[in-house]
Design brief:
Layout: H1 3-12, H2 20-27, H3 31-43, E1 48-51, E2 55-58, H4 66-72, E3 77-83, H5 86-95, E4 102-109, E5 127-134, H6 144-160, E6 165-167, E7 171-174, E8 177-188, E9 195-204, H7 234-248, H8 254-260, E10 267-272, E11 275-284, E12 290-294, E13 299-302, E14 306-309
Parallel strand pairs: 3-4
Antiparallel strand pairs: 1-2, 4-5, 5-9, 6-7, 7-8, 8-9, 10-11, 10-14, 11-12, 12-13
């Protein structure tokens, strides 16, 4: 590594300030090189405090980099400043034989993907994360999407204090608008059958950046921090979400999910094959299916599909 990268590594692993002399001795360079390295890190967005009495200290900085991810993640993580989508990159890594589990994080997506073939608006400022898991770690594949939505809700609440609600099956809402989208895809073992690997894609509207929100989304999405200046870093939230997903898979979580599902008791429209039917959302069953009653009195349990609230 060069001086800048060595300096970042040392500062990341030290809770207390480090003097220029100590850093120079550790890295094997001059104090002037340390000063230049600190300036280069500051130009990259890192916040570094410098004191004559104490030395250099890395403050909390919302910078995404490979070194930052390796520091905060508990599983291997791969960083892309920009990519087509983290789902695509995760699939590419799986196809190249990368061991699972691992995570992919991007600062920006050019073709972020949502459910049902939709795009996901992915400018700078959001959290764009995909997690690849072995099929053997997923006790109930049918409930993976449900588990992910619960894990993301827990993570956001723990780090921000903002209350999350879930619109079946996996959209996370804050103050009545969508803040998070989740997409899950499974890879089947063709020889043995069954789920071989799964990839969970997550997009969080963390804070508003400079890019203009498309007109069709203005009244639908919300940012956790609409004015910017999020106290939570993107790497911090991405790592927490990953840990929560790995944890929730072994839990009996359906009661908590049910309690967060805000559409229960509401009038909805169930959309199948482009055709909508009016219904009332009655319950979420123990396999995360949505129990609905149609206007003709018949009932159905939905295992997939799309529902919208009727206002």
């Amino acid at each position: 590594m060069n001086v800048k990268d060595e300096l970042l590594s040392n500062l990341l692993h030290s809770a207390s300030p480090l003097s220029g002399t100590e850093l120079a001795d550790r890295i094997g360079c001059s104090r002037m090189a340390i000063s230049k390295g600190a300036s280069a890190l500051a130009a990259d967005g890192y916040k570094i405090s410098v004191s004559r009495s104490d030395g250099y200290k890395l403050e909390k900085s919302d910078v995404l980099s490979q070194q930052i991810l390796e520091h905060v993640f508990n599983i291997p993580a791969f960083y892309f400043p920009v990519c087509e989508s983290t789902m695509t990159e995760a699939k590419n890594l799986v196809n190249r034989g990368t061991s699972v589990p691992f995570a992919v994080v991007a600062s920006r997506q050019e073709r972020g993907r949502g459910r049902l073939g939709r795009s996901f608006f992915s400018p700078e400022g959001g959290v764009y994360l995909s997690i690849a898991l072995p099929g053997t770690s997923i006790p109930n594949p049918d409930m993976l999407t449900t588990a992910a939505s619960l894990a993301v809700s827990r993570s956001i609440e723990a780090l921000t204090g903002l209350e999350c609600a879930i619109k079946w099956v996996n959209d996370i809402y804050i103050h009545g608008r969508k803040a998070v989208g989740i997409l899950t895809e499974g890879l089947v073992n063709m020889e043995e059958g069954g789920l071989d690997k799964a990839i969970i894609g997550i997009g969080v509207n963390l804070q508003k950046g400079d890019e203009k929100v498309p007109d069709e989304l203005k009244d639908k999405l919300i940012y956790l921090y609409p004015e910017g200046n999020s106290p939570v870093t993107r790497s911090e939230l991405a790592a927490r979400i990953t840990d929560e997903i790995l944890s929730v898979l072994d839990e009996d979580f359906i009661d908590e999910y049910r309690s967060r599902c805000f559409i229960l008791g509401s009038e909805i429209t169930v959309i199948k094959n482009g055709i909508g039917r009016d219904a009332v959302a009655l319950d979420v069953d123990d396999k995360a299916g949505l129990v609905v009653r149609y206007s003709d009195g018949s009932t159905e349990t939905l295992s997939s599909g799309e529902v919208t609230l009727r206002i």
